[in-house]
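Purpose: get a first structural picture of the assembly so the mutagenesis plan has something to point at.
Setup: two entries, given in the order below. No constraints added.
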Amino acid sequence: MTTFDQARPLRQSMSWLHTWSGLLLGWLLFAIFVTGTLSYFRNEITFWMQPELHSAQVVPTEQIAFVRALALLAREAPDAQQWSLTLPSPRNPTLGLSWQQASAAENSQTSPGATRERGVRGAAAADSAEANRAPSNDMARERPNRREARGENGARREGRWRERGAEGAQSPDSATGNRPAFDGAARERSTRNETRGRANGAQSPETATENRPASDGVARERPSRNETRGRANDAQSPETGQQTDAGQQRPGAGARGQGQGGGGHRGPRLMLDPASGGKLEGRPTAGGNFLYRFHFELYGMDRTWARWIVGIATVLMFVALVSGVIVHRRIFKDFFTFRTGKGKRSWLDAHNASSVLSLPFHIIITFSGLVLFGNMMMPTAFQAAYRGDTEASYFREMRARMAPSDMPEASGESAPLITGLATLIAQAQETWGGARVGSITITHPGDRNAVIELRQMNSPSIAKGGRIVPALRFNGATGEPLATPALPEQNAVQIVSNVLNQLHRGFFATPVPRWLLFLSGIGGSLMVASGMVMWTVARARKTAKSARAPWGHRLVEVLNIAAIAGLMAAIAIHFWANRLIPADLPTRADWEIRAFFIAWAVTLVHAALRRPKAAWVEQLACAGALTALLPLVNAVTGGLSLPASIERGLGLLAGFDLCALVFGIGMLYAAYKVHRHTPRTRIVSSPPEEKPGPGTETETDAPPSEAMEEAA
Amino acid sequence: MKTLDLLIANPSARHRIKVGLRTGLAAFGGYGLALLGAAAFAAGLPFDSRPDAVSLAIMIGFVLQLIAIIWVFAAATIGRATLGLAIPAALFGLWLLLLKAMQTS
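Result (structure tokens, whole complex):
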């Protein structure tokens, strides 16, 4: 026991701090880590969850059915101000189409006072204001609207999820996933479109939270444009949305977005088979976005509260990490030490290895997570810098870093649009030294001044805001190249912000870094899990001596089981629900999420009722089996089977199925190890048993590590 | 904390109170210091663009919070822990007041 106010070594204090700051919200942290880690592949997850899209053919660029796609756009949205095409990418093989209707506020960018645009900005500001809790007139004005909008759905939960769907759809990220939900929602909401649309755009959490606070280029841009963007540009959503926004960050794009998006109406988003140009209809699902949202705003509760809870958990994580490093005297040496089968010692080694292996990742992911919540958690920074000034000026200044748009106005004379997009793509890729094109936007289609803009798929540098990508412009009638807007200059502060933001969100990540981020995330999850388990292992001796475990130990034990093994089972159930709930059930997307929470609650009850060892074994086995069977479920419920997806070159599907297989087998193995484990019985023989893993004995001989000693 | 020792005889209760006090100080004191520090840096950093000052100040704020929390648990006595938060807080406060005075004058 660490006694404060007595002479004690620093490491003893830090060990105490490490133990308790880690334990306090550790269960939540584990869930955040796991769902956040999966979010690195949320597009892939969303795609997996829409088996209707699995038939998309993978074809080389020159065989993409652009002509049919353009014909479809001309038919569906002849009057649109802007069309967007999201090209097939390794993260989503479909060809996405969306468009932006011309709006009354078309020219509002030149008249800053335009009410329409102000309204939009106001809404955006309101949202951020909500996140930030900073005062703002706009906020006062807009908020009621939004409340109303939200409340309107009666069943608020449902409303909320729809809203999410909608946001998702607006944010490129969800390119695939939320689309249908959005459509559905849009239909239902048609009457309240005005309010809602606005509110949603503004709200889109992406903006509000993640980007905004990010503080750098990304953040700066987004607040204001958000809504606009959502409608106009996000449409292009190349894969992750990242780039979508990328365009918008760029000078031209941004301003353009504002101008056009102001009051514009965003059409639906269509997904096509790139080879045939035929429409693909995916089932309504939140897809990977559910896990993604959960990792920073939980579910079913007020967003602001949820973000605060996650923020506080993140602060604790930060404290636990740094105090853990201080405690850890031989950080390098211990990394190469792994003693298996030694109970507590082994758990400590596992904890150390998983922590130290990706320590830079853990520190950055935690710190950047905090910075993403920065405006909410450190509101005084904004208030002090803008004393006596409004939030609106904050966002205005953020926007001011972007150059004004140089997108030409429509001429009013019509001219046929060229259809040889593949040629332009080839030209762009050559210009960029092979970098792929992620999306194409066509502004003023059918006009003599039509502009075709091609945007690069991946952010070129980790130091650039994730959404800033190079672009090339061509005249849409003649195919002649046009001047291309320069990428904005960035100062050191922006670069630091960008790097933090990029590393957290993986905008820059091509496959290899993305997998490294994913693996680091798994390392982080293991670190949290092993730390939590170690807390009980370290106390097992004491617990074992007494007839009954102290209630605190029992509580931690039960929560550990449900939070670790139970969460894994619940995620697996979520994917099963995705396939077992009929594709045409109107509320199916909600039920997928409900299935997740119901399953999770069941694991908690189960953990409370069973003895710990039995509970661990049963839940791990259950989670493992459910996960390992996912490839099979996929194949028999309309998805593309694993061998077929490998053969067809759909790496994203094969990746999902293979990961499910590997994780499932891993959990089954862990269950087997726990099952076979008998504690070394020099200790008392009684119930509390330990968990899965390399060495599970509650042993006595190995000298307990210094850190552990103190912790215990 | 001699007084506490005299007032409360039960060592386990005493321990809990001490831990509680430190935790409270770390949570509220650490956050308070971070808020003040973020404000001071946001207002005082010599950047042309205020958004840059805000983003850097936010980062500094979180680091300050971390250091403050660690300090509270590392300090020998709770009195020193408090002092260690109070002094920088006073400096930040003074700095903010100075800036305000300069702004208005």
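The beta strands of chain A are 80-86, 95-101, 270-272, 279-280, 437-443, 451-456, 471-475, 481-482.
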